[in-house]
Amino acid sequence: GRQGLLRHWGLLGGAAAALAAGLYVLWGPTGSSRRRRGLVPGLLNLGNTCFLNSLLQGLSSCPSFIRWLEDFTAQYSTEQSKSQEHQHLSVTLLQLLRALSCQEVPEDDVLDASCLLEVLRVNRWQISSFEEQDAHELFHVLTSSLEDERERQPRVTHLFDVHSLEVSPVIKGQRGPCVAGSLPPVLSHWKAQHPFHGRLTSNMVCKHCEHQSPVRFDTFDSLSLSIPAAVWGRPMTLDHCLHHFISSEAVKDVVCDNCTKIQAEGILNGQSIENQKTTFVKQLKLGKLPQCLCIHLQRLSWSNQGTPLKRHEHVQFSEFLVMDIYKYRVPVHKPSPRTPEETPGAKDGTAVKPPEAEQPPGTKPHFMNGASSSSSFLKSPGTFPLAAFPECRTPRYVYRLMAVVVHHGDMHSGHFVTYRRSPCPRPALAGPGQWLWVSDDSVRRASLQEVLAASAYLLFYER
């Protein structure tokens, strides 16, 4: 099977090379002319690889992610590692994203991303290009593989950080080198988590005694939101999905240590009692918001007969996204007069949740993040329109839409396309807010109105 697969890939690689050569003969090196038109390179479809192409176009529109990859791959610039660069996912991914974001000059209008599939196979991922795949699953494959690569890196001080160990700290009033104390902090910036990395908080409170269990933290690289049942005559918005995600739920038959302790204190002679089981209220919040936010709208549903169905309804989203009311804040048990500097959240960046933030499903969202019809969004694409958020004059967690991945078709077959911001300058015609529509090797300009009307599957925001 492996030899047959390699044989197929060899034939496919030859066909791709022939196609690339044909494009070059027909059009010549037209990459510069495409960039002059404010467009980006397209990607060859190697056989049902639109899921890969659409995701790469989306990731290449996130500058923070590209900068992180540049810092991350700086360790591989030494001569010792150059021979193994092709085995590193981060290096291959960075080269593709830089070309798709017009930071490097590609030879052709159309790029070949088969090198990324090959390096994923080296990392033991079995990804077939001959079957329908999912862009969101591939996103998880890339982020988890980058985390694995990060964990494989040596934990000793890197060559680039030797200078930080050579500099002796000077204490005020002390002459000569400092012998006591710890070494200066090592600047291992490439050890930092990727910018899609975030943390969820899980809060459990007993309904009987109101005792709160310790807050649990879980990591995430994308928010996978289910689409709640639609209310007739009311459009579905991204806020509805976010509120549904963090809405509290009752968890029955949970052992409450506090209720058990209270019960035990009321019994004499030290008699043993059974653990008290009560109902807890569980709620999710966002403990750490990432620099780059990937939102996945779950469009898979199941019929009564157990067959998969796709939900096609439009979920309204906006160019700007405010996430303050979904951010976890540490509860204050003993309120007391505080200065602005002592206000909870002022030091760690967490936002204080307004009283009206917890709303029942179906009510008007506090921030109206799904109000794509707001004229203030369409009139000022380069600045954040505070007028659209009258209840929050100073939001802390403001995100800007960078790309939208759309899936056309049903659960069995279809096609992925991407709306993305153009990184290529077109000073004579448009500013940095220009949008593009990309379908494999086809690229054209698009309007913001067209983007916001799309049936989104993946949303890429950057803070």
UniProtKB/TrEMBL annotation:
GO terms for biological process: protein deubiquitination; proteolysis. Its EC number is 3.4.19.12. GO terms for molecular function: cysteine-type deubiquitinase activity. Residues 41-463 form the USP domain. PROSITE patterns: USP_1, USP_2, USP_3. Residues 333-374 are annotated as: Disordered. GO terms for cellular component: cytosol; nucleus. The chain crosses the membrane at residues 6-27. It catalyses: Thiol-dependent hydrolysis of ester, thioester, amide, peptide and isopeptide bonds formed by the C-terminal Gly of ubiquitin (a 76-residue protein attached to proteins as an intracellular targeting signal). Keywords: Hydrolase, Membrane, Protease, Thiol protease, Transmembrane, Transmembrane helix, Ubl conjugation pathway. It holds the Pfam family UCH. Belongs to the peptidase C19 family. This is Ubiquitin carboxyl-terminal hydrolase.
